[in-house]
Amino acid sequence: MKNVVRQLRGARDLSQADLGAALGVSRQTVNSIETGRYLPSLPLAIAIARFFGTTVEEVFDVDS
């Protein structure tokens, strides 16, 4: 599943560690989500979307 987490994070000038700390996950988890190797749980996907002030559908491309 494709996502725009890296782009959103970059637009706010956040490191993977910064985002991970804000979400309560590791930097490695953020990296795995960004590269598509890990699909976040629904609560984590919602937390990511809320953190960036957007919707889950705008962060994660469910059609890919």
UniProtKB/TrEMBL annotation:
It comes from the Bacteria. Keywords: DNA-binding. InterPro entries: Cro/C1-type_HTH, Lambda_DNA-bd_dom_sf. Transmembrane segments: none annotated. This is Helix-turn-helix transcriptional regulator. Gene3D superfamilies: lambda repressor-like DNA-binding domains. SMART domains: HTH_XRE (SM00530). CDD domains: HTH_XRE. The keyword Phosphoprotein does not apply. Residues 5-59 form the HTH cro/C1-type domain. It comes from Nocardioides eburneus.
